[in-house]
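Chain A, query sequence.
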Amino acid sequence: MHGWLNRFRRKSLDYEVYSDVSEAMIYGSLIHLMVKRLAMLLVDFINQLLKQRKRPEAISNI
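Chain A, predicted structure.
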């Protein structure tokens, strides 16, 4: 988990005087990561839906 937080320069070292501010920065960093991951999942899901729509449907001669 620390590797993910080190991507945010402000959290690489503890500059905050109050622990509440530091905790809020950690929550903000984790929210940012989760939103980014969810967005990537959503894009993948939409791409899969679009690929399925482009497939020609089988025509049955009944």
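Residues 19-54 form the longest helix (36 residues). The chain has a mean pLDDT of 76.
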